[in-house]
Amino acid sequence: MAIERLTPHLMLVLAMAFCLCANAQERQPEYRLGAGDNIRIAVFQNPDLTVETRVTENGTVSYPLVGSVRIGGLTIPAAEQAIAKALKEGNFIQQPQVNIALLQNRGNQVSVLGSVNRPGRFPLETFNTRLSEMIAIAGGISAVGADVVILTGTRDGKPLRREIDLTGMFLDNKLQEDIVVAGGDVIYVHRQPIFYIYGEVQRPGSYRVERGMTLRQALVQGGGLTQRGTERGLRVYRRSATGYLEAINPDPNDPVQPDDVINIRESLF
């Protein structure tokens, strides 16, 4: 067979790759049922106990024979065990084999707000949906949106807040920062930082601060200098750490900072 001709070294590499993929999958969090989820509950060899129901706001479902069972916040396997335990303890079925299928996800939703093309609340279709996928579901970042995304939520009962450079994540190959989102998370995309330019430039106004932009590039964004303008007349008004605007005479190759006010003065010669 072809596989028998593989070298032992290549076989070892393939085995290691398989183990890494398996471990990565095992680390994925399991989906937890929430209020509003529609599910189908079935018991093996008991078709009369097959029902479609909705998880209530207090996290319970009403099930034949046993009544109310709390499954909100449980994984699907744990919810199956909870219903099986209720059936067994009530002496209705000795060894119940319960199966739960998620029909519609309404309980675990993520809010995407700010500068995206379609802000709103979106259900988690799978338990391993990542940040970039939720941004895509919301229509992507709008033209005025920033590269940095703020995610807030709760993990293991503790508050979580992360600022993630979504663009840099792909440009710099930091895909480990594309974290898995969870129900109740809020993703906020702020507007892209801007700078202001006026004076002896062709197109004075406000513009986006692009990644790595220098003051000289900002002049180009403003249409370049007028015939009376000069780079020697470059002055920047920048807010200091104390909150006051300070006038500086920077080098044209210095980076632009958010909310910089760039003034090009007239040449004296």
In terms of DSSP E residues, the strand content is 35-45%
Tally of strands: 15
Mean pLDDT: 86
The unreliable regions are 1-28
SSE ordering: HEEEEHEEEHEEHEEEHEEE
* Rg value: 29 Å
> Helicity level, as a percent range?
10-25%
End-to-end span in angstroms?
84 Å
Oligomerization category of the chains in this entry:
single chain
Strand order of the largest sheet: 7-6-10-8-9
* Principal-axes shape call: rod-shaped
Class computed from helices, strands and strand pairing: alpha+beta
Describe this structure in words.
- The protein has five helices and 15 strands.
- The strands form four sheets. A five-stranded mixed β-sheet has the order 7-6-10-8-9.
- Strand 6 (109-114) and strand 7 (120-123) form a beta hairpin.
- The radius of gyration is 29 Å and the shape is rod-shaped.
- It has 269 residues and is α+β, with helices and mostly antiparallel strands.
Briefly, what is this?
The protein is built from five helices and 15 strands. By secondary structure, the chain is of the alpha+beta class.
Keywords:
alpha+beta; 269 residues; five-stranded mixed beta sheet; disordered N terminus; rod-shaped
Topology:
Blueprint: H1 8-26, E1 38-43, E2 46-54, E3 60-63, E4 67-70, H2 76-89, E5 98-104, E6 109-114, E7 120-123, H3 131-137, E8 145-155, E9 158-165, H4 166-171, E10 186-191, E11 194-199, E12 205-208, H5 215-221, E13 229-239, E14 245-248, E15 261-266
Parallel strand pairs: 6-10, 11-15
Antiparallel strand pairs: 1-2, 1-5, 3-4, 6-7, 8-9, 8-10, 11-12, 13-14, 13-15
